[in-house]
């Protein structure tokens, strides 16, 4: 939605690098071709904060290794996270690569 005049713009998922990391209401920058109102490019934020909804439980002492495990985030996407991350944790994900960046403490 254009925040200036509230017009709706439809985008195909193919126009986005990682559509699975987008939450509803996320603000993105869209470059539009004014001749036919088609999107030319979409710039996502550099990172997003997402909550882990499903993953194997972490085990005490799993902070020293670089091993990872798959985790499902609130948007349904899967991100590889360190072993110490648990369900309910919030993490910062780099949108360009779809990779774990850090755990977010509230």
From TrEMBL:
Coiled coil: none annotated. One of its GO terms (cellular component) is cytosol. GO terms for molecular function: translation elongation factor activity. GO terms for biological process: peptide biosynthetic process. CDD domains: S1_EF-P_repeat_2. Residues 48-103 form the Elongation factor P C-terminal domain. Transmembrane segments: none annotated. This is Translation elongation factor P. It comes from Algibacter lectus.
């Amino acid at each position: 939605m254009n925040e200036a005049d509230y017009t709706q713009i439809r985008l195909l998922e193919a126009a986005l690098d990682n559509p699975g990391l987008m939450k509803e209401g996320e603000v993105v920058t869209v470059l539009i071709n004014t001749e036919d109102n088609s999107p030319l490019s979409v710039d996502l934020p550099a990172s997003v904060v997402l909550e882990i909804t499903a993953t194997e439980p972490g085990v005490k002492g799993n902070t020293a290794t670089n091993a990872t495990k798959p985790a499902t985030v609130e948007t349904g996407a899967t991100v590889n996270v360190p072993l110490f991350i648990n369900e309910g944790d919030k993490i910062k994900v780099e949108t360009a690569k779809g990779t774990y960046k850090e755990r977010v403490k509230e």
